[in-house]
Design a protein that fits this description.
Length: about 290
């Protein structure tokens, strides 16, 4: 976090406290308790993150919409017009429907990219909180994930408006969208905690992130449906939480299909487990940040 702007009110913890055991860190209610205790601090950092990023720009928060739109324009032309790709089982799928379905995937990918892209340097850019004050560092990745969710919501609102303009109605299954966003948030938060800690000890992580994002983009069913993947490669996307969530979002929003509850439930558990592991790893390693920085 940049030092510009008013400094948030710090929540101080007693010095010299012993690190919690690994088992206690993996308990879900501990995360809930910690996030509630630092709720006001998370809110302040999230607000400052959103405002500082776009301060001085003409379009402000709408950049969070323009970024996936620019990506959509490029990939829409390449995959929609050149490769003649389809994202539904309807052979008469329009280019507009293809673009909206593609945008669903790109918006969710953009959320993960935001969490993964900022995490490796997050603690290093806020080293003053590590070395000068006793500060709950775990709130920094949380503020990144919450800010990314705000940008995701901003991008989904015009998508819903565009669908209404084209089709004059929304499927009732679109009410499941908030439910699909929950495991996505778990996944992004777990990634943010894990990579923000790794970035302190392994500086090469920051150089590896663009490669990871490129691999993730092509393995997450952004430009294709999971059902079109050859059987021998299907495990790559079927065990990828982001791919499953993208496919579910398209089903409920674009085509009015119900959620695949078995697959969705499994991926929700996987995303929740990733969040717990990321939190536990961060909390067990943060006491060493000051020695490295």
């Amino acid at each position: 976090m940049n030092a510009s702007g008013p400094a948030p009110v710090l929540t101080v913890k007693p010095a010299g406290s012993q690190p919690a055991s690994l088992v206690s860190l993996l308990m879900p209610w501990r995360i809930v308790r910690d996030l509630r205790r630092h709720g006001s601090l998370i809110l302040q950092f999230t607000k400052r993150d959103v405002l500082v990023r776009y301060r001085g720009s003409y379009l402000g928060v709408f950049w969070s919409l323009l970024r996936p739109l620019c990506t959509l324009a490029v990939f829409g032309v390449v995959f929609g017009y050149i490769f003649q790709s389809r994202l539904s089982n309807d052979p008469n799928e329009s280019k507009v429907d293809f673009a909206m379905a593609l945008f669903c995937g790109l918006s969710m990918l953009d959320f993960i990219s935001e969490c993964l892209g900022r995490a490796p340097t997050l603690i290093l850019m806020n080293s003053n909180y590590v070395t000068k004050v006793v500060f709950p560092l775990e709130v920094l990745p949380v503020s990144v994930a919450v800010a990314a969710i705000v940008h995701l919501i901003v991008s989904l609102i015009p998508l819903a408006a565009a669908y209404l303009v084209v089709h004059h109605t929304l499927h009732m299954t679109a009410l499941y969208i908030p439910l699909i966003v929950i495991p996505l948030f778990f996944l992004g938060l777990g990634i943010a905690w894990l990579f923000s800690s790794l970035g302190v000890f392994i500086r090469d992580i920051n150089s590896l992130v663009p490669v990871l994002l490129l691999i993730l983009m092509y393995c997450s069913a952004i430009f294709y449906r999971m059902s079109k993947v050859p059987p021998q490669l299907r495990f790559i996307v079927h065990y990828n939480p982001l791919a499953v969530l993208v496919d579910n979002l398209r089903d409920v929003f674009m085509w009015g299909l119900p959620v695949d509850w078995g697959q969705f439930g499994l991926m929700t558990l996987v995303c929740f487990a990733i969040m717990l592991v990321g939190y536990a790893f961060f909390m067990r390693t943060k006491s060493a940040f000051a020695d490295v920085i």
